[in-house]
Amino acid sequence: MKLQISSGQGPVECELAVGKLADALCLEFNACIVQANQGIRDGCYRSVVIECESDLGFLEGTVKWVCQSPFRPNHRRKNWFIDVSPVREFEGVALDDGKVRFDTF
């Protein structure tokens, strides 16, 4: 199973949450990172795709990470949100070439 973990349009704290969750899944479920979009700082990612033999579908949705910002110590916000979505494999489509027509206009 493949999962994409994304910080969306969130700040650097959300990017850190993506990295922390990906690291935890790699350790706990023997998952591996197959694609990563580096964030602003070390250990931070805009998005990560992980692959795992275990079914991690229970993680699908929004994940709330609660912590004091390590980047902005006096920031009042402590709730950070990231998205976890399954990456579905494309099965392909069988097309009859005689029934496909391309038109330009």
Structure description:
This protein has about 100 residues and is of the alpha+beta class. It has one helix and five strands, in the order βαββββ. Strand 2 and strand 3 (about 45-50) form a beta hairpin. The model has no long low-confidence stretch (mean pLDDT about 90).
Give the fraction of residues assigned to helices: 10-25%
Assign the CATH topology: Alpha-Beta Plaits
CATH architecture: 2-Layer Sandwich
**Largest beta-sheet characterization:** 5 strands, antiparallel
Could you tell me the number of beta strands?
5
Strand content: 25-35%
The whole-angstrom Rg is 18 Å
Topology (SSEs and partners):
Elements: E1 2-6, H1 12-29, E2 32-38, E3 45-51, E4 61-66, E5 79-87
Antiparallel strand pairs: 1-3, 1-5, 2-3, 4-5
Short description:
The chain has 105 residues and is an alpha+beta fold. The chain is built from one helix and five strands, in the order βαββββ.
List the defining traits of the structure above.
alpha+beta, 105 residues, elongated, Alpha-Beta Plaits
